[in-house]
Amino acid sequence: MSFSGGFADLYREVILDHSRSPRNFGRLEGANREADGFNPLCGDRLKLSLRVEDGAVRQASFVGDGCAISTASASLLTEALQGLSEAEALALADRFRQMAAGEIHPDEAELGKLSALAGVRAYPMRVKCATLAWHALRVALERRGEVARTE
Amino acid sequence: MTPDVAAATGYDLERVRRDFPILSEEVHGRPVAYLDNAASAQKPLAVLDAMDRIHRTGYSNIHRAVHEFAQRATDAYETARRRMAAFLGADSHEEVVFLRGATEALNLVASCLGRHVLRAGDEVLLTGMEHHSNIVPWQMACEAAGARVVAAPVTERGELDLDAFRGLLGDRTRIVSVVHVSNTMGTVNPVAEIARLARERGAFVCVDGAQAAPHRPIRVDELGCDFYAVSGHKMYGPSGIGVLWGRRRLLEAIPPYQGGGDMIRSVRFSGTTYADPPAKFEAGTPHITGPAGLAAAADYLEDLGFDAVAAHEEALRALAEELLLQIPGVRILGTAPGKAAVVSFLVDGVHPHDLGTILDHEGVAVRAGHHCTQPLMERFGVPATTRASFGLYNTRAEVERLAAGVRTAIGVFRG
Q1: What is the pTM of this model?
Q2: What is the tally of structural domains in chain A?
Q3: Tens digit of pLDDT for each residue in B198-217?
Q4: Between helices B290-304 and B68-88, what is the axis angle to 10°?
């Protein structure tokens, strides 16, 4: 649906779509990297699972319970990662974090579909919702075996 | 007169709202509907003026110098102590300790009473609806003593399971600490009954009254507890100031909390003797203007009258629950009879944080999250709720805007 109101820039159609129907939602068979993400501010939790082969992310999935922003961000992440090398995935995570924090312009971040989440820049309280899955990604790839926290 | 002015009580809502200048602010181009009073309430002019007056006419450090400003500041501070003793129904102003708020008060009781009475194997009995500030200090005290924290369960309606509480109250229970009014659900606990049961078993009783003080008269003499904690900012007073009331003999018996100036009688390197309560617990320069602001808030509440305030807030709570429950997929968490004007709710398909953002855009301020009651969230199997909490200045129109905002959010997220 379309709606008016100042929140349209935050809740873009792509985000609403991914929050209502998250992609790659569920357990991943053959996962060899996992990390839990937890946002103590709101209680949002997710588990990110990756299958990494020959230094590249072959598949990614997540399960969890969170707001539209964190769910859409995790869903978009699982799509964006497919086929990326570990180094590319970490670089993407860096650019995403910088974009969400307003440090770089969305165009400059070269994030493709992920730039739909750029609206969080105007909502400092919601930036952590958008970055939760990306924190978990970093922990999973660096195999630190800890819970990724947004703070 | 608007329809908001309840003819039956003569409650003059328009006049009340004029006392709170912040209520004329706009948020995202709309008049603010501040429904986050359980987190912190706005301040009437009387509170702002009482603090401002000290800064303008008689500010200095207190209890120290002999000059006139010191005398004026000290008088304001100590007059406020007597005012708060009366507000709480305390026998003496010497039982009123000024602290940063209920959190510091509960930390003081856990630390000092804990050191005084807790031994290995002892238990501290709480309820499942406690705020983290009435859980974590006890865990810390128990860890130091080798004691343990036990929590009495909460029923499906969000009430304390009193039978289970009785069963958990045992020979090892040394301290019972309970919330008077739940910040998440508004449940009013039967504190006098809890205190009676606990004292029969020889346990000390501490009450977290942060959410009770803005809504109902507190009579510590009738509750039968040993300690009672209040935060100024939740009862329309300043932030950074609160009160711990404690029985005099206990305040004398327990060790001090922090060391420093003003809490001593004499200091030598060979040893220090402490001041009598309440000074014993007020180390260092305090929030000098805070108590005067808090006393002004107590005056403000009592001048309006707790009966009138309670009737106004109850009408808003009832309207809010009626309007919210008309919306398909809305569920209210905490349905205890006689609850305070706090409405926590869940909306199918809409996460509380997203709802909070949409409502903010409509100018409606609510709280979304776990409300610092994670064990209670776990009890109900939810990560978070949206909470609207009403105060003495809220209007029926604001409640209607809340319900309309929930419908807007549903339109966005359910698609």
Answers
A1: 0.93
A2: 1
A3: 999 999 999 999 999 999 99
A4: 40
